[in-house]
Amino acid sequence: MRSDLMRVAAALGAAAVLFPVLPPSASAAVPSSATVESYMRQAFEATSVPGLAAVVTDGARTVYAGGLGRDATGGAITADSPMRVASVSKSMTAAAVLTLVDEGKVRLDEPVPTYLPDFTMADPRAARITVRQLLNQTSGLSDAGVDIPAVERASSLAGYVAVLRTGHLTADPGKRMAYCNVNYDLAARVVEAVTGRGFPDVMRERVFGPLGMADSGIGSPSVGGYVSVFGAWVGRDELPGFTAGGAGDVVTTATDMGRWLASQTGRGRRLLTPGSLAAMQVPSAVNAYGMGWQRGTVGSRSLLVHSGNLFTHGAIQAISPETGHGFAVMTNSASLHEASYDVLVGLVEMVSGRAPTIPGAGRQQTELVLGGVGLVALGLGVTAVRRARHWATRGATRSRASTHRRWRAALRMVPALVPVLVFASYPQLLSLLMNGRTVTWAQLMYFPLPLTLVLGAAALSGLATIAARLLRLRSVG
Questions:
Q1: Helices in 137-243 by DSSP H: which ranges?
Q2: How many structural domains compose the chain?
Q3: Are 162 and 54 in the same domain?
Q4: Where does the sequence pass through the membrane (predicted)?
Q5: pTM for the model
Q6: Are residues 299 and 254 in the same domain?
Q7: In this structure, how many other beta carbons lie within 10 angstroms of the beta carbon of residue 371?
Q8: 170: closest CA among 160, 180, 161?
Q9: Torsion, Cα of 90, 95, 96, 98 (10° steps)
Q10: Which of 236, 342, 371, 429 could cross-link with 359 by S-S, CB 3.0 to 4.6 Å?
């Protein structure tokens, strides 16, 4: 009871800090819609993304909402084009849960099995996971302990939860933050169980409808997307997977995102009580992550931010509860260099009274360098194959002893073997760099494709080199 009271007091205290009595806007220097439009056109040209949509809010007012470019069918991107926002969805799922908290139907510090008796895992610690820990991503769930490909093949949230039965936790609940989509898909299933309604319907009734987000939905059709392959945009269907959960399945528009951002700053239509809204935005006890929001620096400002990335779409949102400003940028493309954050920085600078920085050609430069590396790797492979006889003859001349010659030859092949080993372990290496997030070969055929092709070229050159040298060694041995 004492800990519950302390959490309530903390949430109310945070509400007083985050949502003081303010006029609708704390800034009078917000740029005009035409000024933002001018910047957006410059950013669109500089990044050369296929489609770009954005919104800027000031209090309850939408300063700018618009779109530029095209979708994969040639249609124009506008403020009302349906875009996938990926993990930006998490804050909306958290809001749906908190509407139930405000109604007394869910308690944040109650164990998940209270609302979801069919949630079990091979790890007994899972019975202690609370709803708050799901939303704070401190449940102990992580990609490393769950069969991610299996849950992605689920056809419903109930089936999704059933797959988790064989999983285990990688930390005690509440002790460590690990970003894992399972947390929010499990939270979505809690919403279904408590309301007796499908998650898409609940989101429409409890979040999208009350905020006037008429063109938003869970797993709805969206504009077609692209991936970048050495500077060229190639239209691709989104990678198949589970599309009815709470982790990343919202499809929305720039216009609707304006209404969402205004609500999240506490200036637009009220969806939650001030205490619940504050609870969403306050960091957990072990990490800066709240409930679908995280405090971060954008340009020169400290904002609440959350990004989202699928395999053909990217998005980012940011708000300042203190000033009432909100920002969102969405693209129907994906590449190794994410443009949405660069555009966001420029929007934040404008609203802060500074000249916006026009994004650079980061994607083109990155992929140009990778393309050059790939060509060099292929060239080195061709040269090594052509010189294999000379390589083998030189090794035989230097060492006449048979055993010594074999060991020397094996050691001299190690440089050619390295790219082969790197490519063979490519998904595992990326998973390690991404703090244990699951990476599959299918995923590597999307926005990381330029890197995948370069590593594949290096591996192919290495294999060809090894094969040619072994053949020549036999002929001179």
A1: 148-152, 157-163, 181-195, 199-203, 209-211
A2: 2
A3: yes
A4: 368-388, 409-429, 449-471
A5: 0.88
A6: yes
A7: 17
A8: 180
A9: 130
A10: 342
